[in-house]
Amino acid sequence: MLKRKTIFTTLFCNLCLSLAVVAPVSAADDSQFVMSASGTESDNGEFTVTLKGENIQDLFAYEVKFNIDGGNIEVVKASTAINGFSVPPIVKNNEVTFAHTKIGKVDGEKGNVEIGTITFKAKKAGTTNIKWTDIKIVDHNLGSQTFKPNESTSFMKVFGDLSGHWAKSDIMQMVDKKVVEGMDDDHFAPNTNVTRAQFATLLSKALNLQDDSGQNPFADVSSGSWYESTVKKSYAAGLINGVADNAFAPEQNITREEMTAMLLRAKAYATGTKIEDMNANGSLSFSDEGSISSWAKKAVVLAVDSGLMNGRTDQEFAPHDNASRAESVVVLKRLIAGLN
After folding, report:
1. Which of 250, 182, 257 is nearest to 218 (CA)?
2. Is this model's pTM higher than 0.85 or not?
3. How far are the Cα atoms of 69, 205, 329 from residue 336, in angstroms, in the given order?
4. Rounded to the nearest 5 degrees, what angle is found at the Cα of 266, between the Cα atoms of 265 and 267?
5. How far is residue 94's CA from residue 72's CA, in Å, rounded to a whole number?
6. Distance CA 50, CA 78 (A)
7. Which of 5, 119, 267, 277 is most buried, judging by how many CB atoms fall within 10 Å of its CB?
8. Considering Cα of 257, then 198, then 202, then 248, what sign does the dihedral take?
9. Are 128 and 156 within 8 A, CB to CB?
10. Which residues of the chain have pLDDT under 50?
């Protein structure tokens, strides 16, 4: 049975290839092809596209092709309500091919026809694009014609722990920009604290800082550590200072005022200005304004005035609270948007 199925599949594929030279289907020029998606986002990564034909004249067999990002998406299944035999989807060089034929001496489908559905699954979080590039239709007399639907749809796999989170949209935008990543393919951990080295890394990626061959001024940034290069180039660009003359405390959770200071230095670096030369139009009105460290005060004023930073609440800035991964991504997005 398996051998017969394999032989039939091979014959059908060869038939589809040979039909390119057969006379085209008559009166099919008015046919239209549309694609719809089951939704725009999901936390499990699965989504289904439905293919429909309108004003179909005689559809006995078909072959459809899609362009996909093969590194981030896989085909789960394909199906059709049209009776007959289907060739399972074939994925090669970022192209998906799916084919189906009716069997026997029967007429082809006519009118508005649901051609089939294909279910995809994204492997990692972010936006995935699917483009329906071709459909070759074959009539019951084995005449063929190829159409170029050029129908596209986008779908986003969202980290499961971002459901209902206030920073979900901003985080996913930054994921799409390849600036931030999740803890794994399914979790972002938005409320986890961020270390000083991690935030410096985010800034260096956002500004596309190049590696610096200068000396590492911090005794607690060991040679070969994952953050050595980040610290060196961030220090050379003036984005970071140490907690002491020779200590950076790379694995210490960053405070909100420390994050604000790094953020303003990054803005100064990117715009070719100095923080000393920046002016704010307003002043702070937080109840805990007095607890902001003197060295961070101007950076906080400037960041709040420009919209780069908000308070932890309407009344409190919370300068000494640890910053979360969600907060760090949101302020990074605001920085990039302001620079653009």
Report:
1. 250
2. no
3. 26, 11, 11
4. 90
5. 10
6. 10
7. 267
8. positive
9. yes
10. 1-12, 15-28
pLDDT in tens, 201-242: 999 999 999 887 778 889 999 999 999 999 999 999 999 999
* Amino acid in position 292: I
CA-to-CA dists, residue 62 to 106, 154, 326, angstroms:
15, 24, 47
Q: In the structure encoding, which two tokens stand for residue 117, read together?
A: 């559905």
Q: Which amino acid is residue 57, in one-letter code?
A: Q
pLDDT tens readout for residues 30-67? 889 999 999 889 989 999 999 999 999 999 999 999 99
Tokens 């986003």, residue? 156
Other beta carbons within 10 Å of 11: 10
* Kind and range of the H or E run holding 54: strand 46-59
Residue 3 has a CB neighbour count (10 Å cut-off) of 7
Residues 6+ apart with CB under 8 A from 135: 33, 51, 53, 62, 63, 64, 65, 115, 146, 147, 149
Secondary structure of 193-262 as H, E, C letters: ECEHHHHHHHHHHHCCCCCCCCCCCCCCCCCCCCCHHHHHHHHHCCCCCCCECCECCCCCECEHHHHHHH
Contact 94, 67 (CB under 8 A): yes
Q: Quick one: tokens of 15?
A: 């038939």
**174: three-class secondary structure by DSSP:** helix
Sign of the CA dihedral with 22 first, then 27, 29, and 35 last = negative
Per-position b or e across 80-110, b if 16+ CB within 10 A of its CB: bebeeebbebeeeeeebbbbbbbeeeeebbe
As a whole number of angstroms, the distance between CA 316 and CA 154 comes to 40
Q: CA 89 to CA 109: how far, in whole Å?
A: 21
Query: For the stretch 306-318, what's the b/e string if a residue is b when 16 or more beta carbons lie within 10 angstroms of its beta carbon?
Result: bebbebbeeeebb
- The enclosing H or E element of 265 equals helix 256-271
Q: 3-state DSSP call for residue 301?
A: helix
